[in-house]
Amino acid sequence: MFASRVARQAFRQTPRMMRPIPKEEQAAHTVSQRLRMRIKTIPAELWPLGVVVGFAVSAAIYSITRHLVVDKTIRLKRQNRAADSHALHAAHEEKH
Fold it and tell me: Where is this region: Disordered (predicted)?
């Protein structure tokens, strides 16, 4: 009786083989058709959240871009490189 149970388990089909074959991810022909298929799988409850997050990200990008363009007091590049190189050289001399 024990040997028959071992034999039954040895020749049993694997669980992966018993599952149905999954649909191909690229079943549609064009990119727009694939996107439409993906959009249909998004739950309706997440659409307002996506709109709010998208608006917040676009507002943040607009705000930082406008701030960098309009504000002339922002230092976007290093200034006084001679003083920086002198400080670096002095720090290097102190180590040796």
Answer: 1-29
